[in-house]
Write a structure and sequence with these properties.
UDP-n-acetylglucosamine1-carboxyvinyl-transferase, Chain; elongated; alpha+beta; binds uridine-diphosphate-N-acetylglucosamine; 4-stranded mixed beta sheet; 5-stranded mixed beta sheet; binds phosphoenolpyruvate
């Protein structure tokens, strides 16, 4: 099994190309099930989750082709163009064996139900960061007229005769996944759907823009109220996946931690204002460039900053672990409160192995900055937790060896290459 070896101590200098967003690419790929035409997605990141979803969509009957080899693009980044064609849905069941491997695959529920009138989808189950309930998906789709039963670990959903019917539904809690699913289902429902308390994440806007390019009638994405006027069918389209704001924030925090001067290319500061503001307050300078941002910290220490995770535009839960990594070296005491997932603190134990001083009280971590970290063997426990260990490893004295790297490969494309080109000593060790 692969491991990542980091030798700490080098500042970062150079440029890092930011990939297309995993959390946008996955729902966009799933949206291809809504049409019998071809949906072409550009800037698709090469990640384990994307490859797994390609297999899952294939199971439903999608024909998928990746444009030759990776295209070399502006700013020395690599991106893939992938074509998805689901002429016929050959299977409306998403089995446990596939859904359990990747939680986002549960979202096929929306398109399958809207297009085929029925779907049988395995419940996603919990994962390392907390439980993953589905009550909001069920309520939202039920509001559109679906009859939903849970049986043997599966959701059996059926549309009324004649298909789903538009309705007004207000989510009692913000959910990115349920907003994706209800919005996709509503595109093919009869009449108008109004989704209240919708998630405002940029990935929801990206999905809405793609659906609009496919012929859907959607307004309000990016606000708390999304209105969808149903159409009878959707066509193909060509859409570019938006930049990964979590990858952007992660590398910005890596520079803030290690010091140096790095341009993050093919990204957009406006996607992560709250996180960038926290990194600035921690002591890094951040300025926009033509097609990205420049992050630098030359001298000056890391200051303690408190953050609370929240739905967008709040501080993202997907950057919480990385920010904790950064705070381990601050000059004082900081507090990080996680409000989205009840168990997203698995990295605390591993950061402690590097010498971090962190205590937990309920959903809040208290981090007492230490003057030095020391390399050690550590274990990746989930996707973002694993990269927080890499960030800490960049300044830890000696060697940090991160095992269970498959978590990292779910969401960070060519991480070791991107950091190495900026002067870090990071290598993948295969055994
Ligand atoms: C609001 C938020 O920050 N969502 C994050 C969540 O999206 P993801 O779509 O995975 O999760 P949701 O946004 O649906 O979950 C938000 C909250 O709602 C709860 N919930 C969700 C669905 C449901 O039916 N019932 C219910 O109670 C969840 O337990 C959670 O506490 O994880 C992703 C991966 O880490 C992040 O990229 C998203 O930013
Ligand atoms: C935890 C994540 O993904 P997932 O919700 O697919 O597990 C993530 O993107 O940080």
């Amino acid at each position: 099994m692969d491991r990542i070896r980091i030798r700490g101590g080098n500042a970062l200098h150079g440029s890092i190309p930011i990939s297309g967003a995993k959390n946008a690419a996955l729902p966009l790929m799933i949206a291809s099930l809504l049409t019998d035409d071809t949906l072409t997605l550009e800037n698709v990141p090469h990640l384990a989750d994307v490859e797994q979803l390609i297999r899952i969509l294939g199971n439903h009957g999608a024909d998928i082709s990746v444009n030759g080899r990776r295209e070399r693009q502006q700013g020395d980044s690599y991106a893939r163009t992938v074509h998805f064609t689901s002429r016929n849905i050959v299977d409306t069941t998403a089995p446990y064996e596939l859904v359990s491997k990747m939680r986002a695959s549960f979202w096929v529920l929306g398109p399958l139900l809207a297009r085929e009138g029925k779907a049988r989808v395995s419940l996603p189950g919990g994962c390392a960061i907390g439980t993953r309930p589905v009550d909001l998906f069920i309520e939202g789709l039920t509001a559109l007229g679906a009859n939903i039963e849970i049986d043997g670990g599966y959701i059996n959903a059926e549309a009324p005769p004649g298909g789903l019917v538009g309705a007004r539904y207000v989510f009692p809690k913000v959910s990115v996944g349920a907003t994706h699913v209800v919005m996709m289902a509503a595109t093919l429902a009869k009449g108008t759907t109004v989704i209240g308390n919708a998630a405002r994440e940029p990935e929801v806007v990206d999905l809405a823009n793609c659906l609009i390019a496919m012929g859907a009638k959607i307004t309000g994405a990016g606000t708390s109220t999304i209105t969808v006027e149903g159409v009878t069918s959707l066509s193909g389209a060509r859409h570019r996946v938006l930049p990964d704001r979590i990858e952007t924030g992660t590398y910005a925090m890596a520079v803030a931690m290690a010091g140096g001067d790095v341009v993050l290319e093919n990204t957009d500061a406006a996607l992560l204002d709250t996180a960038l503001e926290a990194i600035r307050r921690a002591g890094a300078e951040i300025t926009p460039t033509n097609n990205g941002i420049r992050v630098y910290r030359n001298g000056g220490g890391i200051k303690p900053v408190d953050v609370v995770t929240d739905p967008y535009p709040g501080f993202p839960t997907d950057l919480q672990a990385q920010f904790m990594g950064l705070m381990t070296r601050s000059s004082g005491v900081s507090h990080i409160t996680e409000t989205i997932f009840e168990n997203r603190f698995m990295h605390v134990q591993e950061l402690a192995r590097l010498g971090a001083k962190i205590s937990l009280s309920g959903q809040t971590a208290k981090i007492e900055g230490v003057p030095r970290l020391k390399g050690a063997p550590v274990m990746a426990t989930d996707l973002r937790a694993s990269v927080s260990l890499v960030i800490a490893g960049l300044v830890a004295e000696g060697e940090t060896m991160v095992s269970r790297v498959y978590h990292l490969d779910r969401g960070f494309e060519r991480l070791e290459e991107k950091l190495t080109r900026c002067g870090a000593e990071v290598e993948r060790v295969s055994e």
